[in-house]
Amino acid sequence: MPEDMIYLDYAASTPVDAEVAALMHECHTESFANPSSNHAAGLRSQALIATAEEQLASLLNAGPRTLIWTSGATESDNLAILGAARYRANRGKHVVTMRTEHKAVTDAFSQLEQEGFDVTWLMPDDKGRLDPASFADALRADTQLASIMYVNNETGVVQDIEALGAICREHDVLMHVDAAQAVGKLPIDLQVLPVDLLSLTGHKFYGPKGIGALYIADRPGCHVEPLFFGGGQQRRLRPGTLPADLIAGLGLAADIAAARMHDDHAVLTDLRDTLWHGIRDVDGIMINGDWETGFPGILNVSVAGIDGESLLLALEPLCVATGSACNSQIQEPSYVLRALGRSDDLAQSSIRFSVGRPTTLAEVEFAAQRYVDAVSRLRALAPMAAA
Amino acid sequence: MSADPYNATVRELFANPRHGGDLANAVVAEVAQQGVRLRLAASEAGGRIESLRFLAHGCPHVIAACEQFCRTFEGGPTAAIDGFRAADIMCDLSVPVEKTGRILVLEDAVRLLGREISAAAAT
Question: What are the mean pLDDT values of chain B's consecutive 10-residue runs (123 residues total)?
Fold first, then answer.
C-alpha cells in the first residue's frame, strides 16, 4: 500500500499474506502443470490442490469431497442458488432470501424470478438482524431453498445461522450461506452448523483473488445443477482446469486464518472500538448495524446532511467505502441501509470503515480525526448548516 | 479501470473553497433539485459584484463548480453573470455526463441570482 494512503477497506479486499504470495510464486515457476495431467508434474499440482482442500476443510470442519473450487464468492453464490433451485424445481419453486444480501445473491434470486420461481424477500429489523420466527413464518410446503448471509458486507451484522439453519432442517429446505465475510474470521464448524451450501472467497481472508469455493453438504437432496459444461472436472459440477497456484494460496490462507483467528478478532475489536471512540461525539452520528453482536472488522456510520461522495473525497487519504453509488445521475443510496430503515440522506452519507491485520492503532486514530474534521468542514459548507 | 474521477482543478477547488459561506445583507438565490441544495449570496455595488459566496450540499463536482463560479465572477460586472453557462464549467472540471443535471442546478441558481439582483436594483 502506498505510504500516502491509509487503507481501511478490508471488507472489500485484503492483501495477500506474504507466506501465501511466496507459495504462489513457487507454484507459478515450479508447479505450474495442469493438475488433470497424469504425469509427475501434473501429480505435483494435484498434490498441492489436495493439501489446500485439506486446509480449507480443516478451517471449516467440512467432510471429505464437499468442496468445489470456483472463481470466487459470486460464482459460488450463483452455483449454489441457481444450481440448487433448478435441481429441486420439480419439488417446488418457492425460495427465500433477504433484501440485505450481497448483489451476487439478490441478482441470482432475481434470475430465479425470471425463470418462474416465487421469491420471498425478507426484511431485517432496524439493526439488520433477521428474526428467526419471521424466517420460519416465510417457509412454505413448497419452499426448497433459503439463502442468508453470515456477515453482512456493508454493516458487519452477523445473522444467527445456527437458528436459521435448524429451521431449514425442520422444513427440509436447503440452507445456503454466503460466508464471504465470515470465513477465516469467525469460527465455522460445518459438522455442527446446519448449513447445506456455503460460499467463500480467498481474497477476503488474505488469500488471492480469483479463487473461491462452494461447500456442498454430503446429505440426501443436497445437490446443485452445474452452470458450466466441459471437461468433467470436480465431479462435473464445475468443470475447467483447476488453478493450482490460486487454490494452494487459498489453502495456506485458510491454514493461517485458523491459527490467527482468535488473536485477529481481539485486535480488530480494539481497533474498531478506538475508531468509534474517536468519532462517536460527532453530532447526529449513528451506527448502521448491531454494535453488540456485529463483526468487529466493520464499522458503518452515517451522519445527516452530508453528501457521501464529498465525504469520501474529504476523507482522503483514507481508503474507505461509501453507501452511495456516485456514478448515477441521481445518487442511489445503499439498498442495504435503506432496508434497515435509514433515510436516503443517511444511507448515502454512510461510510464503512473496515479494519484488517495490517491496520495500526495510529491509523485508526488518524482516521477518526479525519472523519471528525471532514464532517465539520462539509457541514460548514452546507446550506442547512447556515440556516 | 476507471481513472481518478476528479481532475486537478476539481481537487484544488474542493480542497480550497474559499468562497464557501454566507454574506450578510446580500442578494440570495436558493435552489434544491436532484439531491443538490445550493445557496448563492451576492453583494453588489456600482454595477459590479463585490462579493460572492456559496453554500452547497452536493458531490465534489458541484462544490468545485460553485467555487469556480465565485472565483470567476466576483469583482466583475454584474451583467456578466448572465453569460454564465454550466457547459463551460463542465468542460473545465471534466464533469462526467451523468452529472450534467447536478451542474445545471448551479446554472439555475445563477439565473435566479441574476434576477434577484436585478429586482433588488430596481427597488
Answer: 84 97 94 93 93 96 97 95 90 91 94 93 81
- The per-residue pLDDT for A3 is 67
Helices within chain A (DSSP H only): 18-30, 40-60, 73-87, 103-114, 132-138, 161-170, 244-279, 308-314, 335-339, 344-348, 361-381, 383-386
Q: Which three cell numbers stand for residue A136?
A: 420460519
Q: Are residues A306 and A233 part of one domain? A: no
* Structural domain count, chain A: 2
Flag whether A1 is in a domain. Answer: no
Residue B60 lies in a domain: yes
Residue A222 known to be catalytic: no
Residue A386 at interface with chain B, using a CB cutoff of 8 Å: yes
Residue A70 lies in a domain: yes
Task: Nearest by CB to B55, from A326, A329, A386: name it.
Answer: A386
* Full residue range of the structural domain in which residue A248 is found: 18-256
Q: Kindly state whether residues A178 and A235 are assigned to the same domain.
A: yes
- Is pTM beyond 0.90? Reply is yes
A319 & A234 share domain: no
List of chain A residues whose C-beta atoms are within 8 Å of the C-beta of residue B34: 329-330
Angle, vertex CA B100, rays to CA B99 and CA B102, nearest 5: 70
Chain A's closest residue to B62, CA to CA, is A310
Bridge partner residues of A120 (DSSP) = A96
- pLDDT tens digits, one per residue of A120-143: 999 999 999 999 999 999 999 999
**Based on the domain organization, do A51 and A185 belong to the same domain?**
yes
User: How far apart (Å, rounded) are the C-alpha atoms in residues A41 and A341?
Assistant: 56
B29: closest chain A residue by CA: A383
